[in-house]
Amino acid sequence: MGGLAAAIGLLIVVALVMRPSGPAGTGPTARPSASPPDADDVIAAFFKSVRDPAAAFEVQSKGTFTQIARGKRVAGSMTADMRVVGDSLSGTLRISQPGIISFNGSIVRIGQQSWTRPPGAAWRRQPSPAATDAVNPFAWIATVDDLTYLKAGSGQAGARTHILQSTKWLSGTQYDELVLQLSDSQRDSRMEVETTDAGVPLRATYEFTIRGTLAGAGSLELKGSTQFTFSHWGEAFTIGPPA
Predict the structure, then answer these.
(1) pLDDT of 63-93, one tens digit each?
(2) pTM to 2 decimals?
(3) What gap in Å lies between CA 57 and CA 94, rounded to an integer?
(4) Please, which residues have CB within 8 angstroms of residue 207's CB and are 6 or more apart in sequence?
(5) Cα 166 from Cα 182, distance rounded (Å)
(6) Are 182 and 208 in contact (CB under 8 A)?
(7) pLDDT tens digits, 13-23
(8) In what helix (H) or strand (E) does residue 16 lie, and over which residues does it extend?
(9) Which pLDDT belongs to residue 27?
(10) Backbone angles phi and psi of 75, in degrees to 5
(11) pLDDT > 70 fraction of the chain, expressed in percent and rounded
(12) Strands (E), the chain
């Protein structure tokens, strides 16, 4: 009897081991998330988005500036709220920056034509301030080689994001007159931008420094830091001349 019981027990164990495995639970089967895109693919998607000649988006920016020259420190600031469609834009700009004429008002630019309006005044057809170009920090990114993949982002609304970096000078010609006044001039900048898998920018930070020697007046250093927030990317809207 002892041998028979042992044989029966062995058969039960074998049956349990050989039984096909079933689902571990009654809930839905978990699906693995899609693999992260390649860094080069993220850069390519971002470049395609921001260099699209018809790119449409809204951008809010806020910046601070500090200039030290002739032993004197001067601070400044900038805020902008713009709607951009390709080369055209409209919105408000307020800037008080060392070395340039202050501006506070509304702007409309369509191609090569532009209008400005201070608060409470009428629209005037005249060139917009040079700082207007700074509302789009991507305007001077020429190739994908101007960008590098830095790290994964913190994500937004459950979606994956990525941090890209550029150390190319992205201020265009805005500070050329200042640089021409300096000997031994140096300028450098750094931008970090958070973007989605599809290459849509969400926010960016741009910092720059210009330093050199003013003729007979000692050293000069100008620093700036601007934060950008992008929204409504790719939405259809138009920009027309002011009424």
Answers:
(1) 999 999 888 899 999 999 999 999 899 999 9
(2) 0.81
(3) 20
(4) 189, 190, 191, 223, 224, 225, 226
(5) 25
(6) no
(7) 444 444 444 44
(8) helix 2-18
(9) 44
(10) -110, 160
(11) 86
(12) 56-69, 72-85, 88-96, 103-110, 113-117, 124-125, 148-152, 161-166, 182-196, 201-214, 218-231
Which residues are CB-neighbours of 79 under 8 A, at least 6 positions away? Answer: 61, 62, 63, 93, 94, 95
Separation in Å, CA 183 to CA 50, 67, 81, 144, 219: 35, 17, 36, 32, 9
- CA–CA dist 40, 79 (Å, integer): 33
pLDDT, tens only, 203-224: 999 999 999 998 777 899 999 9
CA angle 116, 122, 124 (to 5 degrees): 40
The Cα 10–Cα 53 span in angstroms is 75
Per-residue exposure over 2-21, b if at least 16 CB sit within 10 Å of its own CB, e if not: eeeeeeeeeeeeeeeeeeee
SS3 at position 212: strand
Strand order in the sheet with 161-166: 124-125, 113-117, 103-110, 88-96, 72-85, 56-69, 218-231, 201-214, 182-196, 161-166, 148-152
Calculated CA dihedral for residues 16, 17, 18, 24, nearest 10 degrees: 80
Closest CA to 166 of 203, 204, 196: 204
d(CA 215, CA 88): 39
Tell me the three state secondary structure of residue 178: helix
